[in-house]
Design goal:
The protein is α/β, with parallel strands linked by helices. It folds into 2 domains: about 5-180 and about 380-405, Rossmann fold, CATH 3.40.50.2000; about 195-380, Glycogen Phosphorylase B (Rossmann fold). The chain is about 45% helix and about 15% strand. The chain contains 14 helices and 13 strands. The protein has helices at about 20-30, 65-85, 95-110, 125-130, 135-145, 155-165, 195-200, 220-225, 245-260, 275-285, 300-305, 345-360, 360-380, 380-405, and strands spanning about 5-10, 35-40, 50-55, 90-95, 110-115, 150-155, 175, 205-215, 235-240, 265-270, 285-290, 310-315, 330. Strands 3-2-1-4-5-6-7 form a 7-stranded parallel beta sheet, with helices on both faces. α3 packs across α5. The longest helix is centred in the last third of the chain and has 24 residues, at about 380-405. It is globular and about 70 Å long.
Length: about 400
Amino acid sequence: MTLAVALLTREFPPEVYGGAGVHVAELARALAHLVDVRIHCFGGPRTSPLVARAYQPWEALRDGTPHGAALEAMSVDLAMAAGVTGADVVHSHTWHANLGGHLAKLLHGIPHVVTTHSLEPLRPWKAEQLGGGYALSSFCERTALEAADAIIAVSNGMRDDVLSAYPDVDPARVRVVHNGVDTVAYRRVAPDRERLTRLGVDPARPMVLFIGRIARQKGILHLVEAAHRLEHDAQIVLCAAAPDTDEIAREVADGVARLRDRRDVVWLDTMLERDDAIALMSAATVLVCPSIYEPFGLVNLEAMACELAVVATSVGGIPEVVVDGLTGSLVPLDLAPGGAPANPARFEADLAERIDGLLGDPEQARAFGRAGRERVEREFSWGTLAATTASIYAEVVDAARRRSSTT
């Protein structure tokens, strides 16, 4: 009998702003060949036949306060728990949906699988964004993880973090299933001069590319500072949107304004269409991922699929994706208590050195790109990763049925 799987997520196309949303969309598409998967997501109605229902938060909670966002997410979780009737297993992604998965487990007596894309205890700066809501997001995550039937970590580094942050979690319940990438969609394309020009990019000049949210964990401010140190000529293209707070949005704007006094900067402050991202990655010299916290770093995988060399920090799951000296360069990073770089100036100097190395040696950059594509095709297929996920579903459902038969 085909398993019925309820996939709970905040993000699902077209409302996607980060790597977790991309992950869910691609995983769902691949899982649809293996199980009966139905999406329960936040936001407006969707046209995808995989979406069972999209949910809006309770209107009474929309008070504009930082903690209100956490309360709104919890209200959606309550509705999601009621909405997954008939599922054999529920699978939640990010703290926004974790409580919904946990409540569905209790309400319907079905196993709960959680995929961890990040961990609240390792993102203390979220208190800046959510205020008291950070305590609520932490509660949602901790409650779900400690009771989950299985936890999928997107990297070995993420698995270590789960067990460190939540010592009450049984290590046997934590599995590693990496993110994947659509290698048909994400591949190097011929230069699209018209598209690049429309985006404000000079197709004839070297390009240093950043794609990510405006969040402290993404390290964009450190990249902006590092760009002041670059010796080689290149345009800096920042595809940076969805700021966590007004404060960090102002900091990035101020930093970009100072950088523009010294070099060309293109700042695209809306979420990219996929074809635009692929065109940029195909034309760039190097993608930079300066994250100070990154459980996986999907953008690195997408860049490698487009044969683009990567400079990334050696944190979290990134070293499991980017092979130093083969598909790109890894930058060491020591963190101070609280999660910020212990020596920001050193980190920024090291970033600049690695970027300059590839700007000055384009043939090496192209060799890294070719090796990256080969690695992606070999190890990060969504079909393989979906099959592993489906096997975890079958395992937890079988275990739940055996427990039920003995009671």
